[in-house]
Amino acid sequence: MSKTVVFPGSFDPVTNGHLDLIDRATKMFDHVVVAVLHNQAKSPLFSLEEKINMLEEATASLDNVEVDASSGLLVDYAKEKNACAIVRGLRSVSDFEYEVPQASMNRKLNEEIDTIFLITKDEYAPLSSSLVKEVAKFNGDISEFVPEVVAKGLKEKLK
């Protein structure tokens, strides 16, 4: 039986931390669906299409990755994709405190879909899309934090 997982996020933009988690998930599961979610609490810099294009380019070398968009309940989307689990990254205790209630609610909504937490590598722990955008806004060097396609996209957006 093929094991599929969903790795959701707003990916505004995708960072090397996200890509590391995606890569690690591809080694544990047969199929990883990277689901770009619309977060109503955030005002995105990139459009949905731009995020999908950047993710597709950044994950092109990973054969078992699919990039898709999702809205609505994550567990419904995961079920639609025949996923056994949702993968989330944890950088800190505050991420854990944010993620656990969501995972518990998802489990109540569909007990067949688990949430699996991957601890971010130390080198990516301080990294977030928001911080990358902030550094880029002030012309800081973001090349070690994001793939080249994202660095170009940010440069273009922030002109």
Describe the fold and architecture.
The chain has helices at about 15-30, 50-60, 75-80, 95-110, 130-135, 150-155, and strands at about 5-10, 30-35, 65-70, 85-90, 115-120. With about 160 residues, the chain is of the alpha/beta class. The chain has one domain: HUPs (Rossmann fold, 3-Layer(aba) Sandwich). A 5-stranded parallel beta sheet has the order 3-2-1-4-5, sandwiched between helices. Helix 2 (about 50-60) links the parallel strand 2 (about 30-35) and strand 3. It is globular. GO terms for molecular function: ATP binding; pantetheine-phosphate adenylyltransferase activity.
Secondary-structure blueprint:
Layout: E1 4-9, H1 16-28, E2 31-37, H2 48-58, E3 65-70, H3 74-80, E4 83-90, H4 93-109, E5 114-119, H5 129-137, H6 148-157
Parallel strand pairs: 1-2, 1-4, 2-3, 4-5
CATH class identity? Alpha Beta
Q: Mean pLDDT, rounded to whole units?
A: 95
Helical amount = 40-55%
Return the structural class: alpha/beta
Tell me how many strands there are: 5
Question: What are the low-pLDDT stretches, counting only 5+ consecutive residues below 50?
Answer: none
- Strand fraction equals 15-25%
CATH fold title: Rossmann fold
N-end to C-end Cα span? 48 Å
Shape: globular
Biggest sheet, spatial arrangement of strands: 3-2-1-4-5
Number of individual domains: 1
- Following the backbone from N to C, one meets helices and strands in this order, namely EHEHEHEHEHH
Radius of gyration: 15 Å
Largest sheet: 5 strands, parallel
